[in-house]
Amino acid sequence: MEISSFPFPTPEDYPSNFFSFFQDFDFPTTDNTTATVFASEPLLKKRKTDDFDFDSIVEEGSLKTVEDILSKFLGFDNEEEKINTQFDFSSHQPTQPLVNQSVFELNQQKMDSVKPLTGNNKRSRQNSAEFISTSEDSTGGGNSQPPLQQRRLWVKDRSKAWWEQCNSPDFPEEEFKKAFRMSKATFDMICDELESVVTKKDTMLRQAIPVRQRVAVCIWRLATGEPLREVSKRFGLGISTCHKLVLEVCTAIRSVLMPKFLQWPDENKMNQIKQEYQMFSGIQNVGGSIYTTHVPIIAPKVSVAAYFNKRHTERNQKTSYSVTVQGVVDPKGVFTDVCIGWPGSMSDDKVLEKSALYQRANRGLLRDVWVVGNSGFPLMDWVLAPYTRQNLTWTQHAFNEKVGEIQRVAKEAFMRMKARWSCLQKRTEVKLQDLPVVLGACCVLHNICEMRGEELNPELKFDLFDDEMVPENIVRSMNAVQARDQIAHKLLHHNHAGTNFL
Angle at CA 36, nearest 5°, toward 33 and 37? Predict the structure, then answer.
């Protein structure tokens, strides 16, 4: 579709008193006359059907009427815009030559000279803060040059009252612990450890977010599991900024704190762990209790079937997708090894085969060490699993009871971790590729709280339930079968076996 251009006004279309406005224009003529000839000769009145009332021009002949017509014609809205134009109505002369200029060009010049609106824009900036950064003259003051254009940054003014109250020294310890699942002393220790990695520099446009606020955004998000929009309201930051801070702090926790607070024990530490497990179970050489839990996720865009959790779906009557978290804990419930991120459709024994712990054992680094698992793990030279067949003897029942006590240590550790960090209880908004970093940070923070004696509020108790699937090949080593039978015999004949199975 083609649209014709707006016709430029000609002398034939307007009365005589209007030609003073166009006296500098070169009108085309066919009879060797000029524009002044047209002005001197009277013209017949023509009735127009447009918005202009030309009769009022002839009858009144006033300059004010001409100005009103120009105002409508050029689109002026007020008197201030009329004054800013390039025409001088008092002298009826243009301040600049108008030859070979169209009405649209004049209107464009007027629009370029109009100042930007500050009050009637669509998005109100009443709740915004304005930051202006100016640049000094590059000549140093000798030959002054026109000042550079100012840069403006509009930042939404958000309330930080809640965080400022929590960050106050007068804020009650119990309230702080309820919000962040840890005491102020533990929180300060984490901030000090992460300060060198998390700190950002101020810029010309804004000040950097303090380290304490950055760490608090991450910990509060993990502790409550609230959506990012609620985190934004609490800390007075943008939603995207809060999401970025959570990932940055979790990455810093993994790189800085994980080597210090989550690592496989050395020889001295391992001997201490063996003694503690033997004291309450009677089983020698137990170096850890292993357990695998599932963390719900939103259905991924790729490999959906791999993350589909059939057992949880059947039990809850709701389609469930998950990732696995395998962990080995010491007698105090502190993680010594974790394997995170494998799809939820994998069984516990398959996850174990994919873990670094399995590779460490194949290299002979777990010699003379038992890792106790539940019925979902196979019996191997270094993995001690309970009896799963029916019609068990008293000796076998007694053995399963002691193995259950050791296994309960790992399960309760996962229960406390999920209760402390509520983000693990429901489907998270974190992308699948970023989820292992977040889950690893939760494990590290759990260890810090456990090592520092941070008690968990009983109101946050969480019941953990994971289905145990017996592997197809339950026995992987005949030597392990004999070793298990010997352990069960010693427990029964040395009065270490209980009678709860009776």
Answer: 50
Taking the C-alpha atoms of residue 376 and residue 340, their distance in angstroms, rounded to an integer, is: 17
- The pLDDT tens digits of the residues spanning 293-351 come to 999 999 998 889 999 988 888 887 888 999 999 999 999 999 999 999 999 999 999 99
Please, what is the angle between helix 394-420 and helix 435-451, to 10°? 100
Q: Which residues contact 346 (CB under 8 A, 6 or more apart)?
A: 324, 354
Range of the domain at 393: 267-494
Residues 278 and 370 sit within 8 Å (Cβ to Cβ): no
- The CATH number given to whatever domain includes residue 192 is 1.10.472
Q: What pairs with residue 335 in β-bridges?
A: 329
Domains in the chain: how many in total? 2
The secondary element (H helix, E strand) that includes residue 218 is helix 211-224
Q: What is the DSSP string of 303-337?
A: -HHHHB-HHHHHHHTS--EEEEEEEEE-TTS-EEE
- 453 φψ region: left (φ > 0), alpha (ψ -120 to 50), beta (else): left
This prediction's pTM: 0.69
Asked whether residue 32 is domain-assigned, the answer is no
Residue 372 DSSP label = E
For the chain, first and last CA: distance in Å? 92
Mark whether 229 and 252 lie in a shared domain. yes
24 lies in some domain: no
Looking up tokens 């709701």 gives 318
Three-class SS state of 254:
helix
